Predict the 3D structure of the following.
Amino acid sequence: INNIIILAIESSCDETSAAVIADGKVLNNIVATQSVHEKYGGVVPELASRAHQENLIPVVQEAILTSGISKDQLSAVAFTRGPGLMGSLLVGVSFAKAFAFARNIPLIEVNHMNAHILAHFIEDPKPNFPFICLTVSGGHTQLVLVRDHLDMEVVGGTQDDAVGEAFDKTAKLLGLPYPGGPLIDKYAMEGNPHAFKFPITRMPELHYSFSGIKTAVLYFLRDQLKDNPNFIKENLADLCASIQYSLVEMLLIKLKVAVKQFGVNEIAIAGGVSANSGLRETLTQLAAQKGWNLYIPKFEYCTDNAAMIAMAAHYKYLKGDFSSMDVTPLAKMKI
Ligand code: KG4
Ligand code: ZN
């Protein structure tokens, strides 16, 4: 018999997603990806909100239908409160509130960054506490010390751009459509990571900086294109591999420092960029070399999804941590 059944909504950026979780087991994870942003080279907030408005009910309907659970069996409804795009968040929050009000069930707010990390608890193997999680997405780059499901501390992070942003912005300079991260990954597979040398910015302590590489690639391409207008086309794989090499190196240098500093042997990665095959491979080798226990989520749970929101909501439900009906979204929200 199922006791705790939660419907979870994710709408922080450009994916509209819904999932149902029953007693800690995720039953499904429906995601509608918004393609309207491709031609703009980045997420257009106004268009994202409208697409959420369009997609949310059909996505929820599908989640409820495929879970085999009826609406009146739901114990609670969860949503992403932040961080994210205000207009996008508002759609999810308003829906969740109305749903909770209509069904007279508790409302659970979830922190999106917390949820990215809790994606590790959807399936086995699960990391043991305490562990260090490198959360890498389009909006964030964080080193997080995770003491318990709901007890996390950000111990390092970026001072400027997120690493996903660096992937996407350099991809744009190469003429690739948004989001460029997965495309850099794809072309990098055929390229030489040492063909070109892009900067590896070294920041103090556990700080990251990813804005320098964008400028370096911009100037490098400008110079090369003067001599050869086909430079990008002729060197695309090597360019992608070299950019990816620098970004992955920067990520891992600080991860090593954090592991040493906190004496933790359990290491996880989370967020959209953890889908990157260069990062996965290099980190897997590094972990084997260092004797770390490494946890990498399934692709499906790396990028934005409601299954991770559902997982976080489950732990909050167990603690009776519910939100009041006057809760509002937060574009910026600390873990
Ligand atoms: O976590 P996520 O889906 O959304 C945010 O919360 O930001 O992350 C999206 C980011 C984008 O910057 C996208 O380019 C990047 O993750 N990304 C990748 C790959 N797949 C997604 N970056 C590099 N390689 C990939 N395979
Ligand atoms: Zn995310």
Summary: The longest helix spans residues 231-262. The chain has a mean pLDDT of 96. The CA atoms of residues 237 and 331 lie 36 Å apart. The two ends are 33 Å apart (CA to CA).
